[in-house]
Amino acid sequence: MQYHAFVIKYAEIGVKGKNRYIFEDALVGQIKRVLAKCDGKFSISKVAGRIYVSADGFDFDETVGALQTVFGITGICPAVAIARDGENRLPNVDALCNEVIAFVDGVYPDKNKTFKVKVRRVDKSYPMDSMELAAEIGARILDAYDEMRVDVHDPQILINVEVREQINIFSKVIPGPGGMPIGTAGKAMLLLSGGIDSPVAGYMIAKRGVDLEAVYFNAPPYTSEKARQKVVDLASVIAKYTGRIRLHVINFTDIQMYIYEKCPHDELTIIMRRYMMKIADILAGESGCMGLITGESIGQVASQTMQSLMCTGEVVRDMPVYRPLIAFDKQDIVDISLKIGAYETSILPYEDCCTIFVAKHPVTKPRLDIIEKHEESLAEKIDELVKTAIETDEVIEL
Ligand code: ATP
Ligand code: MG
């Protein structure tokens, strides 16, 4: 089937009144962003509560794939568009019926299906009203294809015909990612490691319209260049959905070594995680973020028991910590990771900084007062080390 356009469906919940324009404009902006990277000529228009993408010389799979990365889109309907002729006339009813019959043939080689025709006549000068036209087209389809039957309640095929500036015929709905368009919420700082969880956490929050910035704590030479590249690659995977991401790479080695030297080894992970959160909190504040995001999930590892989460979350003073995976099982997280295209990168074997200094028996029920007591032995140098880590922040724009 040769399509000429896409009708974009989006959920309208929470998009009433004044906010609707903000939502739609952001959605149009995001559609433009992803289509700019696709082959073809596209023009996007917003008419009467719908968004249309007319497309010329495009690759179908590439274009649909790109639209499927735009949060806010719930459905992508490939459409055939019939323009007015030189005298500004739309095809007459007979010609229109023939177009719809050809459309059905092109899209559904197997005709053993129930169908319903739904007409939306916006151009009121068109000779039949919506109901009459739907009945006429339906009758003509029945004539043309013996096997097809009408089912107005639960049809297998819903054939939409819109009569407006042009005529659009569409039927299939390819699912979009849902959510809210990027740019309709604020910005948050994702603590991005090389694992499976944090990219999924970032994706989920971004899906609510939140812009992302990310921070990775790197520990060279204990972690390799490959581990760092893996995180950069994961940030690019998320950036496909969010547009640009600024990734901060923080050299965490000296802080980690200092904690290793001064604190009990079974508390190392918790104390390290506390310093990561502290630094992320500062970076987030400096870059206008309104929250931190982590990939934590209750009970997944020692550093994510409820006691551990209390201890690591406690250092964040300036903003909420969003943990979208908090109640997810690992398999559910893996499923999303696969769906968004992060999994293959996430499972590459390059170690991240936490795995290197991990104790054999890390505390699973850390007590905040004891952790704080042990952190006192860091007093001499830790502030200076944190300051240096932030000052030497390497920013990568993706
Ligand atoms: P992930 O799969 O996201 O790596 P994880 O199961 O390995 O998570 P932890 O190592 O306990 O869990 O980390 C919990 C969260 O802390 C991560 O989801 C991430 O948000 C953050 N985090 C951990 N290590 C780093 C790091 N090196 N740089 C940035 N953030 C990190
Ligand atoms: Mg990890």
Summarize the helices and strands and which ones pair or pack.
Layout: E1 5-10, H1 19-35, E2 41-47, E3 50-56, H2 60-67, E4 73-82, H3 93-107, E5 114-121, H4 130-144, E6 149-150, E7 157-163, E8 167-170, E9 174-175, E10 187-191, H5 197-206, E11 211-218, H6 225-242, E12 246-251, H7 253-262, H8 268-286, E13 292-293, H9 306-313, E14 321-322, H10 330-340, H11 343-346, H12 353-356, H13 368-375, H14 382-391, E15 394-397
Parallel strand pairs: 5-6, 5-7, 10-11, 10-13, 11-12, 13-14
Antiparallel strand pairs: 1-3, 1-4, 2-3, 4-8, 4-9, 7-8, 12-15
Helix pairs in contact: 3-4, 5-6, 5-10, 7-8, 8-9
Q: How many angstroms does the end-to-end distance come to?
A: 36 Å
String of helices and strands: EHEEHEHEHEEEEEHEHEHHEHEHHHHHE
> Into how many domains do the coordinates divide?
2
Task: Return Rg in Å.
Answer: 27 Å
CATH topology name of the largest domain, in short, is Rossmann fold
The unreliable regions are none
The level-1 CATH class of the largest domain = Alpha Beta
SS summary, helix count:
14
Helix content: 25-40%
Bound small molecules, by name, code or SMILES, are: adenosine-5'-triphosphate, magnesium ion
Major beta-sheet overview:
9 strands, mixed
